[in-house]
């Protein structure tokens, strides 16, 4: 009896002998096997007061945690112990497709008008514990400040995507520690907020990143030195396939010098984009110059001559977008909200 699931115990008579229970056990196994394909593996918890209660109920359920591989969570306080959790999306902003799906499911609930509990603010409390740290393969943070990090070493994290463009505060030093702990990263997207006192410098962040299989790196609204960025890119020249940067500036060095040092030096780089205007001494480059820069970095040839928007105000030449294949556990609904290169 002790080996039987609780739901079976509650529906049988205690005086039955084991021989009478044998057919029941076989039926239970067959039912469980048949039901596995229908277990929900991706769960939305939207921003209303019961979300944290629902989270705890999910984690205490005897079966559901075995099959969850993705949680998309809006509330800030998140404690997770799902053994198969691989992908973590923490966001307070949802795309139109997601909202439409949510409204179809919860059409009788006025979720947008429900009061917010005081514990569901914009500050992030990421899943804690070494078990979770070992299992996570993707983390996506959208409009959530990173101010509490106790998740340990992210040894198996493959994809990290962070958009803080609408946050008031810059990331703390714990953000650098989080990235540096992920020694197997393949995807790194970073978009920092633009503030009146300038862009956030990523020199210390890049100085600690030395990866074996970094395939894709996208940067937006950051400040970096020419030497630090060149060192970072050349170190990953044998693995990096896609690189994009926009809305950013060099606080030391110059863009033409950087492009010159990178030209034909990236062995397998297939996509290079400056999709939003780079800042050079307070001026924006023209679209045609940035298009020429892409060709120059990837294929070499004559070095492009700098041209600025103030001299050519109508130069909006379209530049090729980076083509991105969504990894397992990531959705285009969230890609388009975070990634400025689509």
UniProtKB/TrEMBL annotation:
Q: Name the InterPro entries for this protein.
A: F-box-like_dom_sf (IPR036047), F-box_dom (IPR001810)
Q: Which Pfam families match?
A: F-box
Q: Which residues form the F-box domain?
A: 3-34
What is the protein named? F-box domain-containing protein
- Which organism is this entry from? Aureobasidium pullulans (Black yeast)
């Amino acid at each position: 009896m002790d080996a039987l699931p609780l739901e079976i115990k509650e529906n049988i008579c205690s005086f039955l002998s084991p021989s009478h229970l044998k057919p029941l056990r076989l039926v239970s196994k067959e039912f469980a096997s048949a039901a596995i394909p229908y277990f929900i593996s991706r769960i939305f918890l939207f921003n209303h007061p019961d979300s944290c209660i629902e989270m705890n109920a999910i984690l205490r359920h005897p079966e559901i945690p075995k099959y969850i591989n993705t949680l998309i969570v809006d509330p800030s306080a998140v404690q997770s112990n799902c053994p198969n959790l691989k992908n973590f999306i923490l966001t307070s902003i949802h795309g139109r497709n997601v909202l439409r799906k949510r409204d179809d499911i919860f059409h009788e609930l006025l979720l947008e008008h429900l009061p917010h509990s005081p514990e569901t603010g914009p500050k992030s409390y990421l899943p804690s514990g070494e078990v979770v740290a070992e299992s996570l393969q993707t983390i996506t943070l959208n409009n959530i400040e990173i101010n509490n990090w106790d998740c340990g070493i992210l040894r198996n994290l493959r994809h990290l995507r962070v958009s803080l463009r609408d946050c008031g505060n810059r990331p703390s030093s714990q953000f650098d520690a989080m990235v540096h702990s992920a020694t197997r990263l393949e995807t790194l997207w970073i978009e920092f907020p633009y503030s009146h006192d300038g862009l956030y410098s990523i020199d210390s962040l890049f100085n600690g990143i030395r990866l074996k299989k970094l395939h894709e790196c996208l940067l937006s609204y950051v400040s970096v030195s020419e030497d630090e960025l060149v060192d970072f890119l050349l170190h990953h020249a044998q693995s990096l396939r896609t690189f994009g940067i926009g809305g950013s500036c060099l606080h030391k060095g110059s863009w033409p010098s950087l492009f010159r040092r990178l030209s034909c030096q990236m062995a397998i780089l297939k996509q290079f984009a400056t999709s939003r205007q780079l800042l050079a001494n307070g001026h924006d480059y023209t679209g045609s110059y940035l298009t020429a820069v892409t060709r120059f970095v990837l294929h070499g040839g004559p070095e492009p001559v700098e041209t600025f928007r103030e001299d050519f105000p109508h130069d909006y030449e379209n530049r090729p977008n980076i083509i991105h294949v969504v990894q397992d556990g990531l959705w285009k609904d969230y890609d388009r909200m975070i990634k400025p290169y689509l």
